[in-house]
Task: structure prediction
Amino acid sequence: MDPRRNASTRTLPNLYGLDLAGLESWIERYGVPRFHAGQVYRWLYARGQLAPRDWTDLPKPLRTRLCREARVDAGRIEDRVEAADRTVKYRIRLGDGQSIESVHMQQSDRVTLCISSQIGCALDCDFCLTGKMGLKRQLSAGEILGQVELMRRDRDLAGKPFNIVFMGMGEPLHNYDAVMAAFGVLSDPDGFGLSRKRITVSTSGLAPAIERLAGEPARPRLAVSLNAATDEVRERIMPINKKYPIARLLEACRHFACATGERLTIEYVLLAGINDRMQDIDRLARIVRGLPAKLNLIPFNAVEGRLDYRSPTRERVLRLRDRLLTARVPASVRWSRGADARAACGQLALLDDSPPGERWREES
Result:
């Protein structure tokens, strides 16, 4: 392709990421019936067909104008790394030339796509490599949806059930409007058609945004990263705790559960010698016992030479889980997937040095 033509195309308005109302506004300028917007919407999201010339139920003159006056850009896969457990980390190039990372995980017949909401993250959790990047910028709804479309196509997921977790790069509730716009398309039967129960947003603890989420007419599932049982420890590893300490965060969690009638997930990353003492676990049990929530223990995912933490041994992790179960707290362990490809929780950071694993690039 002529690079000058490609550069010119990038300046055209991008239809990908528009919701139905946005597409209706776009279609109206052509003086054609509004129902054509619904057809475009289904081609984009339900069918994953991104070439307007192939939208065969639209009039040919309309398709011609769309090809000439708009673009449909969901990003492109520029790199993949496959871990030993078949987890695949994707590097996705966005329209402005910047990149993000997303992850495809499969366990038995359960498929989960871990997607990003920001390039980098502003919250600077000390045990998370993404936080060391700082915040580069927010992602648009289209850039969020594009990750799902590219992985759906690459892994042949069309028509198959899969789950989505906003646990990639960024704090989802820090990009609230774009995340909720993407959620609307993902959960729309005429969009991606996913049950909202298959979509989870994980937050580091933005209490007002949690309360705002509780008031939405439809919302994803909620997971909250607690990661400490005292404010002293939490402030050390999660600076957001200075603004929203544990008591305030738990207040927001209780409000969410009461307002929605839904259970939430409490996540607790285990850091050896930091938050894994028996007194930490006993205090954690007291904190969460009154919440309609399940607790996920997550052994820390190390990145050699980059993060100064380590995980407890497997035996200790299981002992801590059993201590919680004895205290009548529903708890399980979320064992790492994709760690040898730097695709595990807290490891996404667009590092240039290649981790072990099978690597292959997108052909240009």
User: Anything to note?
Assistant: The chain has two domains: 3-69, 76-361. Residues 76-361 form a domain with the TIM Barrel fold (CATH 3.20.20.70).
